[in-house]
Amino acid sequence: MKISELATLSGAPLSAVKYYQREGLLHRSEKTAPNQAIYDQSHVQRVRLIRALLGAGGLSISSAKAVIDALDADSLAQAFGVAQAAMSAPRTTDPEPSPQSRERVSELAHAHGWKTTPENPGFEVAARALDGFQSISFEPSDSFLGAYAAAAAKVAKADLTAVMRLPDREQKTELMVIGSVLGNPLLAGLRSLAHENETHTHLTAQES
Amino acid sequence: MKISELATLSGAPLSAVKYYQREGLLHRSEKTAPNQAIYDQSHVQRVRLIRALLGAGGLSISSAKAVIDALDADSLAQAFGVAQAAMSAPRTTDPEPSPQSRERVSELAHAHGWKTTPENPGFEVAARALDGFQSISFEPSDSFLGAYAAAAAKVAKADLTAVMRLPDREQKTELMVIGSVLGNPLLAGLRSLAHENETHTHLTAQES
Known about the structure:
Two copies of one chain form a homodimer.
Chain A: H1 3-10, H2 14-22, E1 30-33, E2 36-38, H3 41-54, H4 61-70, H5 76-87, H6 99-111, H7 122-134, H8 142-165, H9 169-207
Antiparallel strand pairs in A: 1-2
């Protein structure tokens, strides 16, 4: 198919598809002439995937590219590491998390018996969020953080169970990489719904 | 204190503090002369908060402004609604989520007995993530989504428990608004750590 048809089938504006191509997010297509390429169903899927990473996933073009490149990694663990690093790449303006918050996250991981490496970007991401809480002088209790860790463990288990059920290595890698990104907005959206429910429950008596 | 001292105490570059002021993110300060203002400790806290929202929270300047404005809302439920809407404001380039994914999220909320309103932005955020999974032809099972919903319910309960423990209304509002934003990267960071642990457990045998 031509690039215009690729745009129509994937539901993306033609200008966006051309942009993804220029940025190296689309894999190579058969070239029939120096400036005419032939696209197939794999490109339609790829455009949809790019839009999911940029949209729901909230990634930048360069992070989306790193995540897509991770799909070609040699092992599942490696693909996973590359994807994690890509999606949590700190911006240069982000302050370093405080040693106290880093330590608190390490203790939490240890208390849950998690085997992790110090390079896991989750330490920085979580520690930076804890530093944010300090800006409103909120000191999270152990039971507060324990609930977060238990929730994280629950979804991580569900993620890996879904990955291990898939028949082949390529699909496993794909779900591990993409699921790492898209699981976060899925969880955030559901948390927002659960918040509304909890708010009704807790506040109705007090505020009415 | 002067603006330079505000920058030093809050750990932010002077140029950033000036920028927040121009964008209306800092509350009014006493003016001693037409172009000299006096800042106090409340401004130091505010600058730290802004940096947490922009950094760990990943918000844009305009979303951070909406979240900060929500701190002045009349009721907790209203503050919460404003904050939720601000942080999940879809960019104009985001595609509408599919009716199928919206329906799946509604069913999930219903299955968990959540009382929600259709305006809750969580429906769109979660549905858009589900659409993303379809771009890699992954059909989340009921048990996969059930684990996500249970995890979301768990953290929402911990969030509201922490809010209700605070002594006054102002602090409650602050934690509800800021916690809505910062809870997501906290959860995402911990999920990344739990992922690594699960990956070791599941893959060691297969890949070594």
